[in-house]
Design a protein that fits this description.
49 residues, mainly alpha, two-stranded antiparallel ribbon, 4 helices
Length: 49
C-alpha cells in the first residue's frame, strides 16, 4: 500500500470512527462475552451496528 492509498483510507470518516472505537473497545462495545473479547477482539457484527 503506498502513501496515496493510506491517505485515502484515513480520509474516510467511517473508517476513522471505527479505528477510534477499536482503540478502546471496552468503552464502545458491550461487555466481554457479548461479541467482544479482550483476547479475540471485536466481532464485526458489533462494528456494523
Amino acid at each position: 500500500m503506498d502513501t496515496k492509498d493510506i491517505f485515502k483510507v484515513l480520509s474516510n470518516e467511517t473508517r476513522l470512527q471505527i479505528l477510534q472505537w477499536l482503540k478502546d473497545p471496552g468503552t464502545h462495545f458491550p461487555a466481554p462475552g457479548d461479541g467482544y473479547s479482550e483476547t479475540e477482539g471485536v466481532c464485526v457484527s458489533l462494528i456494523q451496528k
